[in-house]
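With this grant's support, we have settled on a layout for protein records. A representative record follows, to show the layout.
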Amino acid sequence: MQCYLYVLRCRDGRYYVRSARHDLDRRLAQHHAGESTYTATRRPLELIFVQEFEDPRDLVMMERRLKGWSRAKKEAYMRGDTTALRNLARRHTSFGTPRAKAPGSSG
């Protein structure tokens, strides 16, 4: 089964990240016709990115991940810029940063 992750740019410049499990063309037509609550008031819409997935679980995982990312990180992903993606990920993570010790604690 073919599944699609897609990104629309709305009239206000915002990105709308979604997925389609079957017929991408039909789903896009629904957006353009105003049948989607979020995008109905943000038309015209421009399809700026599509990625195809074989496994729906991979699609859902990537959609959730992309929705949580900053605009810059989404743009790096859509460009396929793995270097920028890694740099942006490093800037926003606190992993590996030592935590301050509470007063009076040992260790």
Summary: The longest helix spans residues 56-68.
